[in-house]
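Why do we care about 3D structure at all? Because function follows from shape, and shape follows, mostly, from sequence. That is the central idea of this module. The next example makes it concrete: a single protein chain, its amino acid sequence, and then its structure expressed as tokens.
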Amino acid sequence: MDFKYKHFRQQRLYSASPEEVFDRSRAVITESVGWTITKEASDGFTAEGSSFGHAGIANIQIHSTGNGTIVDVELRVERAGVTGFMLFDVGGYYNIQIRKWLDAIQASLHQQATGQAPSAPAPLQPPNKSAARLFHGCLLLIGIAFGIYLLVTIIGAVIGLATGNLFLVGRNGNLTVHGPAARAISAVILLFGAWVVWRIMKKPHKPSIIQ
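And the structure:
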């Protein structure tokens, strides 16, 4: 499990040349999604931006097949964001966003094929919608509550390791442990917390698909 990034991947086949697909894909990501191109090659590009309060990196690879041109989207979204720590994709939000990107590329290609003058793609991330604000607020409150619980647990573990008296707050009641067992449990909690922090902060070794 990657504790720093949540990974998403989708692909789609288009009946257009790689050059046309590349051009329309680039336009959608930069003009419609509003992300910044950080790397570019003949077979794709990498873009970075933010979505739903989390920073993301999108690797777009474009290659030709016998039936057309395939666009392969690999999206990495940082789990830690302003709305809290993302353990899972709530409501399939990021998979839906990737589908919107691919749909926008298809619409842009269709517009070009029918002889219409290419226009700037419409923004796919409408700003400041009330429902999005409310949902962000709920996630933020959940994240704050969870963060407070973790902080109390860590403080309790530090005290338990130092004094041999461990007090843990639980959903179904509090737990108090004394003696060597308290110190052992406290050490395990602190080591696990340090390991999680290390995994989050550690730079992933997986290279970009765009060389």
